[in-house]
Amino acid sequence: xxKRNWKKHRSTSLIGAIRDCKDFALDVHGRSVxxxxxxxxxxxxxxxxxxxxxxxxSIVIKPYELACGCSFITxxxxxxxxxxxxxxxxxxxxxxxxxxxxxxTFSQAFKLLNDFYQGKANQEETQASIKLHLEQFxxxxxxxxxxxxxxxxxxx
Length: 156
Description:
Elements: H1 14-29, H2 33-40, H3 44-53, H4 61-68, H5 72-80, H6 96-117, H7 123-145
């Protein structure tokens, strides 16, 4: 059996997202259902029940995802509400080349978007380019937001 590409994986149902979290925890972190239950403060029986019927209380979604080390449930819920989820990157000092990269990815995304609407570009490539630009913009959003309260550097 080949290993899943978890970076590109997207769940297509709530039950699938709950199961995908469990599978991710086992595949990537080697965590059993018992370990996930312990880390999330639940019983194994509850986890098995939620994996079977998909009726997980919303208050335990975040602890479950933290125990599994992924956020497939949150991503599915956002996508099912027509929302885009972008990971907020950790802030660091920006350089002039970061701003040039931002401008370049915007130009590329804009060109692909224009080409897409003229029938000259495919959907996947256009969406990937737009997402890359949004992620870079989110990175700058985070940096600007954390400028007044810089993060402490531990282990330096």
